[in-house]
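Students often ask what a 'structure token' actually looks like in practice. Rather than answer in the abstract, let us consider Germin-like protein, a protein of 210 residues. Its sequence is given first.
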Amino acid sequence: MMIFPISFIFFLTLSSSYASVQDFCVADYTAPQGPAGYSCKIPANITVDDFVYTGLGVAANTSNINNVGITPAFSAQFPGLNGLGLSLLRADFAVGGVSPIHVHRGASELILVVEGTIIAGFIDSNNKVYLKSLKKGDTMILPQGLLHFQKNGGDTPALLFAAFNSENPGVQLLEIALFQSDFPTELIAQTTLLDTAQIKKLKGLLGGTN
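Now compare that with the structural description of the same chain:
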């Protein structure tokens, strides 16, 4: 019979205990959220359902100003992603649908076209535009922190999935930042060279003030 040293058995016990704590950090939505993300759920309360998300199988509502429906699977919706550094979303584009110019400060975005035609592009720090019409099965990488967009480039609905190298990539839409805020109209005009009347029209449309 093989006899293991006490130190070896202790090491195995310690390693097993340590791994059970460090394997994952399922988001606890009932606890305070800090700068590093959600607090970890108590291991005894974790179930397999924390690691499964079914929301991406249903088309999102595209009845909005941009004719695009977004279904995220970020840590806020999918607790098992917390701390793992990746996430997904589904984007449904009606005919004419546009995901307006926006930026993800916390992640790069890899898109996969599943149905239809998507025109996608981004602008680099030297103001060079990278633009491509994508068809079913095509993928495109949109680097972290750069302005980018997607739009339906065909005459039928389109669908894409996007993967991010963060469980919470964050998003800031340029049109929302300018026209759904209290950023003074005159300052927007001076800093963007946009026409004041057009700015007021867009603020009225999107709910901005001043």
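One point worth highlighting: Confidence is low (pLDDT under 50) at residues 14-21. Ask yourself how you might have guessed this from the sequence alone, and why that guess would often be unreliable.
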